[in-house]
Design a protein that fits this description.
Blueprint: E1 5-11, E2 17-28, E3 45-57, E4 61-70, H1 74-79, H2 81-84, E5 92-99, E6 103-111, E7 121-136, E8 139-153, E9 160-162
Antiparallel strand pairs: 1-2, 2-3, 3-4, 4-5, 5-6, 6-7, 7-8, 8-9
Length: 167
């Protein structure tokens, strides 16, 4: 298996930072490949690509993302088992948040670049949280509002579910 890998990091005295890594691998596999857990054939040309990024900007904006592409479910399990046991299915998402003085505004989206894995998709989720604030006399106020469209399909072609109300 061959493929580049890299890490990066930077920070400053104001608390801003960025850090992340890229890992990848490719193999032309001529061994006995059989089939994966849901009986799909494992391809001869196999590979994976993973990227993770975390960043803080001006002390108020946080960005993070993860992108994982696996050509087949066994590629990481067979060639990088230590990584596989901490994450057995690839996950790809982007999230950004802005923290105000007493509120947080955030957006989250889950991506699905791996056709062999069926996960719950959020397209996107937008959220506003007013943090608990004392208004006097031992009384606190807080508020939460969010919007998300959810979508999920059974891995074996069964029921399809989404958050839309029936027509």
């Amino acid at each position: 298996m061959i493929g580049p890998a890299a890490t990066y990091a930077s920070s400053d005295s104001d608390g801003d930072f960025l850090r992340g890594y890229v890992r990848s691998g490719y193999i032309s596999d001529h061994g006995d490949r059989l089939a994966d857990a849901i009986w799909n054939g494992i391809p001869q040309n196999r590979g994976y690509f993973e990227w993770e990024h975390k960043q803080r900007i001006h002390g108020h904006i946080d960005l993070q993302g993860s992108f994982s592409y696996w050509s087949d479910p066994a590629i990481v399990r067979e060639y990088r088992p230590r990584w596989f046991y901490s994450q057995q299915e690839p996950d790809s998402f982007l999230e950004g948040s802005y923290a105000g003085e007493n509120y947080v505004l955030s957006a989250f989206a889950r991506l699905s670049p791996n056709r062999r894995y069926l996960d719950q998709k959020r397209q996107p989720e937008i959220r506003f949280d007013l943090l608990p604030t004392a208004i006097g006399g031992g009384v606190y106020e807080r508020f939460n509002a969010s919007f998300a469209e959810l979508e999920q399909q059974d891995a074996h072609g069964g029921a399809y579910c989404n958050s839309d109300p029936p027509a």
